[in-house]
Amino acid sequence: MGKGAKLEDAQAADREPETLYGISGSPGIVVGRAVVLRPRTDDLVRYRLEKEAIQAEQERFQEAVDGAEQELKDLRSKFEGDLSDTLTIMDSHIRMLRDRMILDQTANLIKQKQINAEWALSRALYLVKKKFDHIADEYIRDRFADVEYVVNLLQDQLSEHGQQFPTGFAEPVIVVSEDFSPADTVRMQSEKVLGFLTEKGGTTSHTAIVARSLGLPAVVGVENITERCRTGDMIILDGYDGRVCLSPTMDQQKQYQEYDRQHRAFSDELRWYIHLASETLDGLRVRLSANIEIPDEMEGVIYYGADGIGLFRSEFGYFQQKYLPDEETLFSVYQDLVIALDPQPVTIRTLDAGGDKLASQLPGNKFKALHERNPALGLRSIRLSLREKPLFVTQLRALLRASAFGRLRILLPLISLLSELQQVQEIIGQVMMDLTNEGVPFDPDVELGIMVEVPSAVTMADALAAEVNFFSIGTNDLIQYSLAIDRGNEYVAKMYDPLHPAVLRMISRTVEAGHAQGIEVALCGEMAGDVFMAPVLLGLGLDELSMRPSAIPHVKRLLRHSTTRRLTGLAKQILK
Protein backbone atom coordinates (compact mmCIF):
# COMPACT_ATOMS: atom_id res chain seq x y z
CA MET A 1 0.00 0.00 0.00
CA GLY A 2 1.36 3.39 -0.92
CA LYS A 3 0.71 6.73 0.72
CA GLY A 4 0.91 9.80 -1.45
CA ALA A 5 2.75 12.84 -0.17
CA LYS A 6 0.90 16.12 0.16
CA LEU A 7 0.20 17.70 -3.23
CA GLU A 8 2.15 20.92 -3.41
CA ASP A 9 -0.43 22.69 -5.56
CA ALA A 10 -3.59 21.74 -3.66
CA GLN A 11 -4.76 23.25 -0.43
CA ALA A 12 -7.57 20.89 0.51
CA ALA A 13 -9.51 22.16 3.49
CA ASP A 14 -10.27 19.86 6.39
CA ARG A 15 -13.43 17.91 5.65
CA GLU A 16 -15.61 15.46 7.51
CA PRO A 17 -14.99 11.81 6.57
CA GLU A 18 -17.39 10.59 3.90
CA THR A 19 -17.90 7.14 2.38
CA LEU A 20 -19.05 6.71 -1.23
CA TYR A 21 -19.92 3.51 -3.06
CA GLY A 22 -19.32 2.45 -6.64
CA ILE A 23 -18.46 -0.78 -8.44
CA SER A 24 -15.32 -2.80 -7.86
CA GLY A 25 -13.26 -2.25 -10.99
CA SER A 26 -10.01 -3.89 -9.88
CA PRO A 27 -9.07 -5.31 -6.47
CA GLY A 28 -6.65 -3.70 -4.08
CA ILE A 29 -6.57 -1.02 -1.39
CA VAL A 30 -4.55 2.18 -1.63
CA VAL A 31 -4.39 5.38 0.38
CA GLY A 32 -3.22 8.62 -1.19
CA ARG A 33 -3.91 12.13 -2.38
CA ALA A 34 -6.30 12.69 -5.26
CA VAL A 35 -5.65 14.39 -8.58
CA VAL A 36 -8.97 15.22 -10.23
CA LEU A 37 -8.74 15.42 -14.02
CA ARG A 38 -11.53 17.32 -15.74
CA PRO A 39 -12.00 18.06 -19.45
CA ARG A 40 -13.26 21.62 -18.98
CA THR A 41 -10.79 24.49 -19.00
CA ASP A 42 -12.53 26.26 -16.11
CA ASP A 43 -11.73 23.30 -13.85
CA LEU A 44 -8.05 22.94 -14.65
CA VAL A 45 -5.81 21.03 -12.31
CA ARG A 46 -2.16 21.83 -11.72
CA TYR A 47 0.41 19.20 -10.89
CA ARG A 48 4.18 19.25 -10.72
CA LEU A 49 6.35 17.30 -13.12
CA GLU A 50 9.57 15.45 -12.61
CA LYS A 51 12.44 17.01 -14.56
CA GLU A 52 12.64 13.92 -16.78
CA ALA A 53 9.01 14.49 -17.87
CA ILE A 54 9.38 18.13 -18.96
CA GLN A 55 10.45 17.44 -22.56
CA ALA A 56 7.60 14.95 -23.08
CA GLU A 57 5.13 17.51 -21.71
CA GLN A 58 6.43 20.18 -24.09
CA GLU A 59 6.05 17.70 -26.96
CA ARG A 60 2.49 16.97 -25.83
CA PHE A 61 1.74 20.69 -25.97
CA GLN A 62 3.24 20.95 -29.47
CA GLU A 63 1.08 18.03 -30.60
CA ALA A 64 -1.96 19.89 -29.27
CA VAL A 65 -0.97 22.96 -31.32
CA ASP A 66 -0.60 20.80 -34.44
CA GLY A 67 -3.95 19.10 -33.77
CA ALA A 68 -5.81 22.39 -33.21
CA GLU A 69 -4.33 23.85 -36.38
CA GLN A 70 -5.39 20.82 -38.41
CA GLU A 71 -8.88 21.03 -36.90
CA LEU A 72 -9.20 24.67 -38.00
CA LYS A 73 -7.87 23.89 -41.48
CA ASP A 74 -10.30 20.99 -41.87
CA LEU A 75 -13.16 23.22 -40.77
CA ARG A 76 -12.06 26.01 -43.14
CA SER A 77 -12.01 23.64 -46.11
CA LYS A 78 -15.69 22.82 -45.57
CA PHE A 79 -16.86 26.41 -46.15
CA GLU A 80 -18.19 27.18 -49.61
CA GLY A 81 -19.53 30.29 -51.27
CA ASP A 82 -18.93 33.88 -50.33
CA LEU A 83 -17.80 33.57 -46.74
CA SER A 84 -14.69 35.71 -46.98
CA ASP A 85 -15.21 37.34 -43.58
CA THR A 86 -15.54 33.98 -41.87
CA LEU A 87 -12.49 32.63 -43.68
CA THR A 88 -10.48 35.70 -42.71
CA ILE A 89 -11.34 35.18 -39.05
CA MET A 90 -10.41 31.49 -39.24
CA ASP A 91 -7.12 32.39 -40.92
CA SER A 92 -6.38 34.77 -38.06
CA HIS A 93 -7.09 32.00 -35.56
CA ILE A 94 -4.69 29.69 -37.39
CA ARG A 95 -1.99 32.39 -37.23
CA MET A 96 -2.67 32.93 -33.51
CA LEU A 97 -1.91 29.27 -32.84
CA ARG A 98 1.65 29.95 -33.96
CA ASP A 99 1.95 33.25 -32.09
CA ARG A 100 5.18 33.20 -30.07
CA MET A 101 3.42 35.02 -27.22
CA ILE A 102 1.36 31.91 -26.54
CA LEU A 103 3.75 29.18 -27.73
CA ASP A 104 6.94 30.38 -26.10
CA GLN A 105 5.25 31.54 -22.92
CA THR A 106 3.59 28.14 -22.39
CA ALA A 107 6.71 26.13 -23.23
CA ASN A 108 8.83 28.27 -20.88
CA LEU A 109 6.35 27.90 -18.02
CA ILE A 110 6.33 24.13 -18.43
CA LYS A 111 10.11 24.11 -18.14
CA GLN A 112 10.66 26.79 -15.51
CA LYS A 113 7.77 25.93 -13.18
CA GLN A 114 7.75 22.16 -13.90
CA ILE A 115 3.99 22.26 -14.40
CA ASN A 116 1.61 20.45 -16.74
CA ALA A 117 0.75 21.94 -20.15
CA GLU A 118 -2.88 22.74 -19.32
CA TRP A 119 -1.94 24.90 -16.35
CA ALA A 120 0.99 26.51 -18.16
CA LEU A 121 -1.33 27.45 -21.04
CA SER A 122 -3.87 29.00 -18.67
CA ARG A 123 -1.10 31.04 -17.04
CA ALA A 124 0.15 32.18 -20.47
CA LEU A 125 -3.39 33.31 -21.31
CA TYR A 126 -3.54 35.26 -18.04
CA LEU A 127 -0.28 37.07 -18.86
CA VAL A 128 -1.52 37.89 -22.36
CA LYS A 129 -4.78 39.24 -20.92
CA LYS A 130 -2.86 41.61 -18.64
CA LYS A 131 -1.18 43.08 -21.72
CA PHE A 132 -4.50 43.47 -23.57
CA ASP A 133 -6.06 45.19 -20.54
CA HIS A 134 -3.53 48.03 -20.88
CA ILE A 135 -4.36 48.71 -24.53
CA ALA A 136 -6.44 51.88 -24.99
CA ASP A 137 -7.95 50.98 -28.37
CA GLU A 138 -11.28 49.23 -27.64
CA TYR A 139 -11.32 47.33 -30.96
CA ILE A 140 -7.90 45.79 -30.36
CA ARG A 141 -8.79 45.09 -26.73
CA ASP A 142 -11.86 43.15 -27.88
CA ARG A 143 -9.67 40.88 -29.99
CA PHE A 144 -8.67 39.11 -26.77
CA ALA A 145 -11.83 36.99 -27.29
CA ASP A 146 -10.13 35.48 -30.34
CA VAL A 147 -7.08 34.63 -28.26
CA GLU A 148 -9.33 32.96 -25.68
CA TYR A 149 -11.02 30.94 -28.41
CA VAL A 150 -7.68 29.65 -29.69
CA VAL A 151 -6.52 28.77 -26.17
CA ASN A 152 -9.78 26.86 -25.60
CA LEU A 153 -9.11 24.90 -28.76
CA LEU A 154 -5.70 23.98 -27.39
CA GLN A 155 -7.17 23.00 -24.03
CA ASP A 156 -9.64 20.73 -25.82
CA GLN A 157 -6.76 19.07 -27.64
CA LEU A 158 -4.91 18.59 -24.36
CA SER A 159 -7.98 17.13 -22.67
CA GLU A 160 -10.82 15.13 -24.17
CA HIS A 161 -9.98 15.41 -27.88
CA GLY A 162 -6.33 14.51 -27.96
CA GLN A 163 -5.05 13.91 -24.50
CA GLN A 164 -2.92 11.01 -23.58
CA PHE A 165 -3.05 10.22 -19.91
CA PRO A 166 -0.74 12.73 -18.12
CA THR A 167 2.53 11.33 -16.86
CA GLY A 168 5.41 12.58 -14.79
CA PHE A 169 3.56 13.08 -11.48
CA ALA A 170 6.12 14.18 -8.89
CA GLU A 171 4.48 12.07 -6.15
CA PRO A 172 2.17 9.03 -5.81
CA VAL A 173 -1.47 9.90 -6.54
CA ILE A 174 -4.93 8.42 -7.04
CA VAL A 175 -6.36 9.83 -10.26
CA VAL A 176 -10.04 10.72 -10.48
CA SER A 177 -12.00 11.45 -13.64
CA GLU A 178 -15.36 11.09 -15.28
CA ASP A 179 -13.92 8.21 -17.28
CA PHE A 180 -10.68 6.84 -18.70
CA SER A 181 -10.11 5.00 -21.95
CA PRO A 182 -8.47 1.54 -21.88
CA ALA A 183 -5.41 3.16 -23.46
CA ASP A 184 -5.29 5.70 -20.62
CA THR A 185 -5.33 2.82 -18.15
CA VAL A 186 -2.37 1.16 -19.85
CA ARG A 187 -0.48 4.46 -19.52
CA MET A 188 -1.06 4.43 -15.76
CA GLN A 189 1.71 1.87 -15.32
CA SER A 190 3.79 3.94 -12.97
CA GLU A 191 4.79 3.78 -9.34
CA LYS A 192 3.34 7.30 -9.11
CA VAL A 193 -0.24 6.15 -9.93
CA LEU A 194 -1.66 4.17 -7.02
CA GLY A 195 -5.12 3.60 -8.51
CA PHE A 196 -8.07 5.41 -10.09
CA LEU A 197 -11.73 6.36 -9.62
CA THR A 198 -14.32 7.09 -12.31
CA GLU A 199 -17.93 8.16 -12.52
CA LYS A 200 -18.65 5.89 -15.47
CA GLY A 201 -17.99 2.23 -16.16
CA GLY A 202 -18.83 -1.18 -14.80
CA THR A 203 -17.09 -4.41 -13.80
CA THR A 204 -16.71 -5.53 -17.40
CA SER A 205 -15.92 -2.21 -19.06
CA HIS A 206 -12.66 -2.52 -20.96
CA THR A 207 -11.09 0.08 -18.70
CA ALA A 208 -11.80 -2.09 -15.64
CA ILE A 209 -10.55 -5.21 -17.43
CA VAL A 210 -7.25 -3.55 -18.28
CA ALA A 211 -6.91 -2.29 -14.70
CA ARG A 212 -7.30 -5.84 -13.33
CA SER A 213 -4.78 -7.18 -15.81
CA LEU A 214 -2.27 -4.56 -14.68
CA GLY A 215 -3.02 -5.05 -10.98
CA LEU A 216 -4.11 -1.41 -10.66
CA PRO A 217 -6.75 -0.88 -7.92
CA ALA A 218 -9.86 0.87 -9.24
CA VAL A 219 -13.42 1.77 -8.31
CA VAL A 220 -15.77 2.73 -11.15
CA GLY A 221 -19.32 4.03 -11.37
CA VAL A 222 -18.97 6.40 -8.38
CA GLU A 223 -21.69 9.00 -8.87
CA ASN A 224 -20.44 12.62 -9.07
CA ILE A 225 -16.99 11.68 -7.75
CA THR A 226 -15.32 14.49 -9.75
CA GLU A 227 -17.52 17.03 -7.96
CA ARG A 228 -17.33 15.52 -4.47
CA CYS A 229 -13.58 14.95 -4.53
CA ARG A 230 -11.00 17.70 -4.94
CA THR A 231 -7.36 17.64 -5.91
CA GLY A 232 -5.33 17.21 -2.73
CA ASP A 233 -8.00 15.31 -0.78
CA MET A 234 -6.75 12.26 1.10
CA ILE A 235 -8.77 9.21 0.04
CA ILE A 236 -8.94 5.46 0.60
CA LEU A 237 -9.73 3.44 -2.51
CA ASP A 238 -11.10 -0.04 -1.75
CA GLY A 239 -11.12 -1.96 -5.02
CA TYR A 240 -12.38 -5.12 -3.31
CA ASP A 241 -15.76 -3.73 -2.23
CA GLY A 242 -16.10 -0.72 -4.55
CA ARG A 243 -15.84 1.71 -1.64
CA VAL A 244 -14.22 5.16 -1.42
CA CYS A 245 -13.47 7.01 1.81
CA LEU A 246 -12.97 10.76 1.44
CA SER A 247 -10.89 12.53 4.11
CA PRO A 248 -10.54 9.34 6.21
CA THR A 249 -9.48 9.41 9.85
CA MET A 250 -6.21 7.81 10.92
CA ASP A 251 -8.20 4.95 12.49
CA GLN A 252 -9.91 4.28 9.15
CA GLN A 253 -6.58 4.27 7.36
CA LYS A 254 -5.17 1.73 9.85
CA GLN A 255 -8.30 -0.41 9.51
CA TYR A 256 -7.95 -0.56 5.72
CA GLN A 257 -4.26 -1.32 5.99
CA GLU A 258 -5.15 -4.39 8.05
CA TYR A 259 -7.89 -5.32 5.59
CA ASP A 260 -5.39 -5.16 2.74
CA ARG A 261 -2.87 -7.24 4.73
CA GLN A 262 -5.44 -10.00 5.18
CA HIS A 263 -6.16 -10.10 1.45
CA ARG A 264 -2.47 -10.31 0.70
CA ALA A 265 -2.06 -13.16 3.22
CA PHE A 266 -4.77 -15.16 1.44
CA SER A 267 -3.05 -14.50 -1.89
CA ASP A 268 0.18 -15.85 -0.42
CA GLU A 269 -1.66 -19.05 0.58
CA LEU A 270 -2.83 -19.49 -3.02
CA ARG A 271 0.76 -19.68 -4.27
CA TRP A 272 0.73 -23.34 -3.27
CA TYR A 273 -1.60 -24.03 -6.20
CA ILE A 274 0.35 -22.19 -8.88
CA HIS A 275 2.37 -25.14 -10.15
CA LEU A 276 -0.23 -27.87 -9.57
CA ALA A 277 -2.17 -29.37 -12.47
CA SER A 278 -5.51 -27.75 -13.29
CA GLU A 279 -7.73 -30.80 -12.82
CA THR A 280 -10.62 -32.04 -10.71
CA LEU A 281 -10.41 -34.69 -8.00
CA ASP A 282 -11.51 -37.30 -10.56
CA GLY A 283 -8.95 -36.26 -13.18
CA LEU A 284 -10.82 -33.92 -15.53
CA ARG A 285 -8.26 -31.54 -17.05
CA VAL A 286 -9.26 -27.98 -17.96
CA ARG A 287 -6.83 -25.54 -19.47
CA LEU A 288 -6.56 -22.36 -17.39
CA SER A 289 -5.04 -19.66 -19.59
CA ALA A 290 -4.24 -15.99 -19.24
CA ASN A 291 -5.80 -12.87 -20.71
CA ILE A 292 -3.22 -10.14 -21.24
CA GLU A 293 -3.11 -6.70 -22.86
CA ILE A 294 0.59 -6.00 -23.30
CA PRO A 295 3.81 -8.07 -23.48
CA ASP A 296 5.00 -6.72 -20.12
CA GLU A 297 2.40 -8.98 -18.45
CA MET A 298 4.26 -12.12 -19.55
CA GLU A 299 6.02 -12.25 -16.19
CA GLY A 300 2.62 -12.69 -14.50
CA VAL A 301 1.55 -15.34 -17.02
CA ILE A 302 4.54 -17.48 -16.12
CA TYR A 303 4.47 -16.68 -12.40
CA TYR A 304 0.83 -17.69 -11.92
CA GLY A 305 1.25 -20.97 -13.83
CA ALA A 306 -0.99 -20.26 -16.82
CA ASP A 307 -1.48 -22.99 -19.42
CA GLY A 308 -0.68 -20.56 -22.21
CA ILE A 309 -2.33 -17.33 -23.34
CA GLY A 310 -6.01 -17.67 -24.07
CA LEU A 311 -6.43 -14.06 -25.17
CA PHE A 312 -3.82 -11.49 -26.14
CA ARG A 313 -5.68 -8.25 -26.81
CA SER A 314 -3.45 -6.99 -29.61
CA GLU A 315 -5.17 -3.62 -30.03
CA PHE A 316 -3.37 -1.99 -27.11
CA GLY A 317 -0.15 -2.18 -29.09
CA TYR A 318 -1.82 0.16 -31.55
CA PHE A 319 -3.05 2.72 -29.02
CA GLN A 320 0.25 3.20 -27.18
CA GLN A 321 2.22 4.90 -29.91
CA LYS A 322 1.92 7.88 -32.25
CA TYR A 323 1.93 5.80 -35.43
CA LEU A 324 0.33 2.57 -36.55
CA PRO A 325 2.78 -0.29 -35.89
CA ASP A 326 4.42 -1.79 -38.96
CA GLU A 327 4.76 -5.49 -39.75
CA GLU A 328 8.20 -5.86 -38.19
CA THR A 329 7.10 -4.26 -34.92
CA LEU A 330 4.07 -6.56 -34.65
CA PHE A 331 6.08 -9.62 -35.69
CA SER A 332 8.69 -8.96 -33.01
CA VAL A 333 6.01 -8.79 -30.28
CA TYR A 334 4.16 -11.91 -31.44
CA GLN A 335 7.36 -13.89 -31.96
CA ASP A 336 8.57 -13.14 -28.43
CA LEU A 337 5.24 -14.28 -26.93
CA VAL A 338 5.21 -17.54 -28.86
CA ILE A 339 8.84 -18.40 -28.11
CA ALA A 340 8.47 -17.59 -24.41
CA LEU A 341 5.54 -20.01 -23.95
CA ASP A 342 6.38 -22.75 -26.46
CA PRO A 343 4.93 -25.45 -26.54
CA GLN A 344 1.89 -23.91 -24.83
CA PRO A 345 -0.61 -22.15 -27.10
CA VAL A 346 -0.67 -18.38 -27.56
CA THR A 347 -4.03 -17.06 -28.81
CA ILE A 348 -3.78 -13.61 -30.35
CA ARG A 349 -6.95 -11.71 -31.17
CA THR A 350 -6.77 -9.52 -34.25
CA LEU A 351 -7.36 -5.79 -33.91
CA ASP A 352 -10.52 -5.18 -31.87
CA ALA A 353 -10.79 -1.40 -32.16
CA GLY A 354 -14.20 0.20 -31.76
CA GLY A 355 -16.78 0.28 -28.99
CA ASP A 356 -15.05 1.84 -25.99
CA LYS A 357 -11.69 1.33 -27.72
CA LEU A 358 -12.64 4.04 -30.22
CA ALA A 359 -11.27 3.60 -33.72
CA SER A 360 -10.97 7.39 -33.92
CA GLN A 361 -8.26 7.19 -31.24
CA LEU A 362 -6.07 4.98 -33.41
CA PRO A 363 -2.96 6.69 -34.80
CA GLY A 364 -3.30 7.87 -38.39
CA ASN A 365 -5.39 10.77 -39.69
CA LYS A 366 -7.82 8.61 -41.66
CA PHE A 367 -9.43 7.42 -38.41
CA LYS A 368 -9.76 10.84 -36.79
CA ALA A 369 -12.98 11.72 -38.58
CA LEU A 370 -14.65 8.47 -37.55
CA HIS A 371 -17.31 9.61 -35.06
CA GLU A 372 -20.20 7.18 -34.62
CA ARG A 373 -23.42 7.71 -32.71
CA ASN A 374 -23.31 4.14 -31.41
CA PRO A 375 -19.76 2.72 -31.65
CA ALA A 376 -20.72 -0.57 -29.94
CA LEU A 377 -22.97 -1.39 -32.90
CA GLY A 378 -20.85 0.28 -35.55
CA LEU A 379 -17.59 -0.10 -37.42
CA ARG A 380 -15.62 -2.14 -34.92
CA SER A 381 -13.50 -5.28 -34.60
CA ILE A 382 -13.52 -7.52 -37.68
CA ARG A 383 -15.72 -5.03 -39.55
CA LEU A 384 -13.01 -2.39 -39.28
CA SER A 385 -10.32 -4.89 -40.30
CA LEU A 386 -12.23 -5.94 -43.42
CA ARG A 387 -12.81 -2.32 -44.40
CA GLU A 388 -9.18 -1.32 -43.76
CA LYS A 389 -7.67 -4.28 -45.57
CA PRO A 390 -4.03 -3.04 -45.68
CA LEU A 391 -4.12 -2.62 -41.90
CA PHE A 392 -5.50 -6.16 -41.53
CA VAL A 393 -3.01 -7.72 -43.94
CA THR A 394 -0.09 -6.15 -42.08
CA GLN A 395 -1.23 -7.82 -38.86
CA LEU A 396 -1.97 -11.16 -40.53
CA ARG A 397 1.49 -11.27 -42.10
CA ALA A 398 3.08 -10.64 -38.70
CA LEU A 399 0.90 -13.31 -37.07
CA LEU A 400 1.62 -15.95 -39.71
CA ARG A 401 5.36 -15.27 -39.61
CA ALA A 402 5.34 -15.67 -35.82
CA SER A 403 3.48 -19.00 -36.15
CA ALA A 404 6.73 -20.57 -37.37
CA PHE A 405 8.17 -20.25 -33.85
CA GLY A 406 5.56 -22.07 -31.75
CA ARG A 407 1.86 -22.76 -31.32
CA LEU A 408 0.13 -19.55 -32.32
CA ARG A 409 -3.64 -19.36 -32.68
CA ILE A 410 -5.41 -16.53 -34.52
CA LEU A 411 -8.66 -15.33 -32.98
CA LEU A 412 -11.17 -13.20 -34.92
CA PRO A 413 -13.38 -10.82 -32.89
CA LEU A 414 -17.08 -10.05 -33.35
CA ILE A 415 -17.85 -12.49 -36.15
CA SER A 416 -21.59 -12.20 -36.75
CA LEU A 417 -21.96 -13.59 -40.27
CA LEU A 418 -20.61 -16.67 -42.02
CA SER A 419 -19.74 -14.42 -44.96
CA GLU A 420 -17.41 -12.35 -42.72
CA LEU A 421 -15.51 -15.48 -41.76
CA GLN A 422 -15.26 -16.56 -45.40
CA GLN A 423 -13.89 -13.14 -46.36
CA VAL A 424 -11.20 -13.47 -43.70
CA GLN A 425 -10.32 -16.97 -44.88
CA GLU A 426 -9.83 -15.67 -48.42
CA ILE A 427 -7.53 -12.90 -47.19
CA ILE A 428 -5.51 -15.32 -45.06
CA GLY A 429 -5.20 -17.68 -48.02
CA GLN A 430 -3.81 -14.84 -50.15
CA VAL A 431 -1.38 -13.76 -47.43
CA MET A 432 -0.15 -17.35 -47.08
CA MET A 433 0.38 -17.50 -50.85
CA ASP A 434 2.36 -14.26 -50.78
CA LEU A 435 4.58 -15.47 -47.91
CA THR A 436 5.20 -18.75 -49.72
CA ASN A 437 6.25 -16.91 -52.89
CA GLU A 438 8.57 -14.73 -50.79
CA GLY A 439 10.11 -17.79 -49.12
CA VAL A 440 9.00 -16.64 -45.66
CA PRO A 441 8.37 -19.53 -43.23
CA PHE A 442 5.03 -19.91 -41.40
CA ASP A 443 2.80 -22.69 -40.07
CA PRO A 444 0.37 -23.60 -42.89
CA ASP A 445 -1.82 -25.37 -40.33
CA VAL A 446 -2.07 -22.41 -37.96
CA GLU A 447 -5.26 -22.64 -35.92
CA LEU A 448 -8.02 -20.15 -36.70
CA GLY A 449 -10.80 -19.43 -34.22
CA ILE A 450 -13.61 -16.95 -33.71
CA MET A 451 -14.96 -15.03 -30.77
CA VAL A 452 -18.56 -16.03 -30.08
CA GLU A 453 -19.83 -12.77 -28.60
CA VAL A 454 -23.01 -11.83 -30.45
CA PRO A 455 -26.35 -13.72 -30.43
CA SER A 456 -26.20 -14.36 -34.19
CA ALA A 457 -22.93 -16.29 -33.74
CA VAL A 458 -24.60 -18.47 -31.10
CA THR A 459 -27.53 -19.17 -33.41
CA MET A 460 -25.14 -20.04 -36.26
CA ALA A 461 -22.64 -21.87 -34.05
CA ASP A 462 -23.08 -25.21 -35.83
CA ALA A 463 -22.28 -23.72 -39.25
CA LEU A 464 -19.41 -21.60 -37.92
CA ALA A 465 -17.88 -24.53 -36.02
CA ALA A 466 -17.47 -26.42 -39.29
CA GLU A 467 -15.20 -23.62 -40.60
CA VAL A 468 -12.79 -23.03 -37.70
CA ASN A 469 -10.45 -24.87 -35.33
CA PHE A 470 -11.81 -23.48 -32.05
CA PHE A 471 -14.34 -21.18 -30.41
CA SER A 472 -13.65 -18.61 -27.71
CA ILE A 473 -16.77 -17.27 -26.03
CA GLY A 474 -16.46 -13.57 -25.20
CA THR A 475 -19.05 -13.20 -22.47
CA ASN A 476 -18.33 -9.52 -21.82
CA ASP A 477 -19.92 -8.50 -25.13
CA LEU A 478 -22.27 -11.50 -25.36
CA ILE A 479 -23.99 -10.45 -22.13
CA GLN A 480 -24.09 -6.82 -23.23
CA TYR A 481 -25.65 -7.57 -26.60
CA SER A 482 -28.03 -10.25 -25.31
CA LEU A 483 -29.42 -8.31 -22.34
CA ALA A 484 -29.32 -4.88 -24.07
CA ILE A 485 -27.20 -3.46 -21.25
CA ASP A 486 -24.27 -1.12 -21.81
CA ARG A 487 -21.59 -2.49 -19.49
CA GLY A 488 -19.93 0.94 -19.34
CA ASN A 489 -23.10 2.82 -18.36
CA GLU A 490 -23.10 3.62 -14.65
CA TYR A 491 -26.91 3.68 -14.55
CA VAL A 492 -27.46 0.11 -15.79
CA ALA A 493 -24.11 -1.59 -15.15
CA LYS A 494 -25.50 -3.24 -11.99
CA MET A 495 -28.15 -4.98 -14.14
CA TYR A 496 -25.37 -6.72 -16.08
CA ASP A 497 -25.94 -10.35 -15.02
CA PRO A 498 -23.46 -13.02 -16.17
CA LEU A 499 -25.61 -15.77 -14.61
CA HIS A 500 -28.78 -14.78 -16.46
CA PRO A 501 -30.40 -18.04 -17.68
CA ALA A 502 -30.38 -16.80 -21.27
CA VAL A 503 -26.62 -16.22 -21.11
CA LEU A 504 -25.91 -19.64 -19.63
CA ARG A 505 -28.09 -21.33 -22.26
CA MET A 506 -26.18 -19.57 -25.03
CA ILE A 507 -22.88 -20.74 -23.55
CA SER A 508 -24.23 -24.30 -23.29
CA ARG A 509 -25.50 -24.23 -26.87
CA THR A 510 -22.15 -22.97 -28.16
CA VAL A 511 -20.26 -25.71 -26.29
CA GLU A 512 -22.57 -28.38 -27.72
CA ALA A 513 -22.22 -27.04 -31.28
CA GLY A 514 -18.43 -26.88 -31.01
CA HIS A 515 -18.06 -30.36 -29.56
CA ALA A 516 -20.38 -31.78 -32.21
CA GLN A 517 -17.83 -30.60 -34.80
CA GLY A 518 -14.90 -31.85 -32.74
CA ILE A 519 -13.43 -28.43 -31.86
CA GLU A 520 -12.40 -26.98 -28.50
CA VAL A 521 -14.52 -24.30 -26.86
CA ALA A 522 -12.92 -21.76 -24.55
CA LEU A 523 -14.36 -18.84 -22.58
CA CYS A 524 -12.32 -15.67 -22.18
CA GLY A 525 -14.75 -13.22 -20.57
CA GLU A 526 -14.43 -11.84 -17.06
CA MET A 527 -16.73 -14.63 -15.84
CA ALA A 528 -13.87 -17.08 -16.24
CA GLY A 529 -11.82 -15.58 -13.40
CA ASP A 530 -14.72 -15.26 -10.93
CA VAL A 531 -14.68 -18.11 -8.41
CA PHE A 532 -18.44 -17.72 -7.89
CA MET A 533 -19.16 -18.27 -11.59
CA ALA A 534 -16.35 -20.61 -12.63
CA PRO A 535 -18.04 -23.76 -11.19
CA VAL A 536 -21.03 -23.25 -13.47
CA LEU A 537 -18.79 -22.68 -16.50
CA LEU A 538 -16.74 -25.78 -15.72
CA GLY A 539 -19.97 -27.77 -15.41
CA LEU A 540 -21.07 -26.63 -18.87
CA GLY A 541 -18.18 -28.58 -20.41
CA LEU A 542 -15.82 -25.82 -21.50
CA ASP A 543 -12.34 -26.99 -22.48
CA GLU A 544 -10.54 -23.81 -21.45
CA LEU A 545 -11.10 -20.83 -19.19
CA SER A 546 -8.97 -17.77 -19.87
CA MET A 547 -8.68 -15.03 -17.25
CA ARG A 548 -6.36 -12.39 -15.80
CA PRO A 549 -3.21 -14.18 -14.60
CA SER A 550 -3.69 -13.42 -10.88
CA ALA A 551 -7.09 -15.18 -10.90
CA ILE A 552 -5.66 -18.53 -12.08
CA PRO A 553 -4.63 -19.84 -8.62
CA HIS A 554 -8.11 -19.01 -7.25
CA VAL A 555 -9.88 -20.99 -9.99
CA LYS A 556 -7.31 -23.79 -9.86
CA ARG A 557 -7.89 -24.18 -6.11
CA LEU A 558 -11.62 -24.45 -6.76
CA LEU A 559 -11.11 -26.96 -9.57
CA ARG A 560 -8.85 -29.23 -7.51
CA HIS A 561 -11.48 -29.43 -4.74
CA SER A 562 -14.32 -30.34 -7.12
CA THR A 563 -15.53 -33.41 -9.01
CA THR A 564 -16.90 -33.54 -12.54
CA ARG A 565 -20.20 -34.88 -11.25
CA ARG A 566 -20.72 -32.03 -8.81
CA LEU A 567 -19.84 -29.40 -11.41
CA THR A 568 -22.10 -30.79 -14.15
CA GLY A 569 -24.91 -31.30 -11.63
CA LEU A 570 -24.66 -27.66 -10.56
CA ALA A 571 -24.73 -26.45 -14.18
CA LYS A 572 -27.78 -28.58 -15.04
CA GLN A 573 -29.61 -27.34 -11.98
CA ILE A 574 -28.96 -23.68 -12.84
CA LEU A 575 -29.85 -24.17 -16.52
CA LYS A 576 -33.33 -25.25 -15.44
Description:
With 576 residues, the chain is of the alpha/beta class. It has 3 domains: 18-39 and 164-267, Phosphohistidine domain (Glucose Oxidase, domain 1); 52-158, Enzyme I, Chain A, domain 2 (Orthogonal Bundle), CATH 1.10.274; 275-575, TIM Barrel. Helix content is 45%, strand content 14%. It has 23 helices and 16 strands. The protein has helices at residues 54-77, 84-97, 100-113, 117-133, 138-142, 144-161, 182-186, 206-214, 225-228, 250-270, 298-303, 316-319, 327-341, 382-387, 389-402, 418-438, 455-459, 461-465, 475-483, 501-516, 534-539, 552-560, 564-575; strands spanning 18-21, 23-26, 29-37, 173-177, 193-198, 218-220, 234-238, 243-246, 287-292, 309-313, 346-349, 408-412, 447-452, 470-473, 520-523, 544-547. It has an 8-stranded mixed beta sheet with strand order 1-8-7-3-4-5-6-2. An 8-stranded parallel beta barrel has the order 9-10-11-12-13-14-15-16, surrounded by 4 helices. β15, α21 and β16 form a beta-alpha-beta unit. α2 crosses α6. The longest helix has 24 residues, at 54-77. The radius of gyration is 26 Å and the shape is globular. The model is unreliable at 1-13 and 79-86 (pLDDT under 50).
